[in-house]
Design goal:
- This protein is of the alpha+beta class.
- The chain folds into two domains: 93 residues, no CATH class; 65 residues, no CATH class.
- 42% of the residues lie in helices and 15% in strands.
- The chain has six helices and five strands.
- The chain has a three-stranded antiparallel sheet with strand order 1-5-2, with no helix packed on it.
- Helix 2 crosses helix 3 and helix 3 runs antiparallel to helix 4.
- The N and C termini lie far apart (55 Å).
């Protein structure tokens, strides 16, 4: 079976509300298919931000800009976390720049590279086949909820999404509990 296309994902959204399939995308249009495509794009962004093996780059080096020592990220970066020699640092995204939350500043400590695990936004066609399926089901559920509000169809779509979600591996970098929760749990265990 060929891999799911973005058109297939849009048609999945339309099927969730008992609408007819379409034969072409209506990107930036005003039709119900264009609205479904926006839900597919939103779900792609949402799931890519969680960090999956297909869209996560580990220990990517970023060099701070000369003079300001600020690190700029690409517009396709959705989430970051310090890694390698910088894994102890609380580095977060603010806009398209790296912010050192521990120091309360954008400027890094020196001109040495900053190492980050990065979750990037990928185009639908570049996603892992199972992640495409998960995006389609996530978008279908959200689209049906906001369009029809049927409790029965929502229950069916939730079950389908749960099954797909249970078999899709996530990159441990971003799916693990936040650092402050881990530290709190370790402290409680030591007591």
């Amino acid at each position: 079976m060929p891999s799911m296309t973005k058109l297939d994902a849009v048609n999945s959204c339309l099927a969730a509300i008992n609408e007819y399939r379409v034969t072409a995308l209506d990107t930036n249009g005003t039709s119900i298919a264009a609205e479904a495509e926006r839900y597919v794009d939103d779900s792609t962004r949402y799931l890519c931000a969680q960090g999956f093996p297909c869209n996560t780059i580990r220990s990517k080096a970023y060099t701070p800009a000369a003079g300001t020592l600020e690190v700029s990220l690409g517009s396709d970066v959705l989430r970051i976390r310090g890694s390698g020699p910088d894994q102890h640092r609380n580095l977060v995204m603010r806009g398209t720049k790296v912010y050192d939350a521990d120091k309360g500043q954008y400027a890094m400590q020196d001109a040495n590279p900053v190492y980050l695990d990065v979750a990037e936004l990928l185009a639908f066609a570049d996603l892992d086949p199972m992640l495409r399926e998960q995006v389609a089901q996530h978008a279908s559920q959200r689209f049906a909820r906001r369009t029809t509000g049927s409790q029965m169809s929502d229950a069916y779509l939730s079950q389908e999404l749960g099954l797909t979600d249970s078999i899709q591996p996530r990159e441990g970098t971003f799916s693990s509990r936040p650092i402050f929760v881990q530290a709190q749990t370790q402290t409680q265990q030591q007591q």
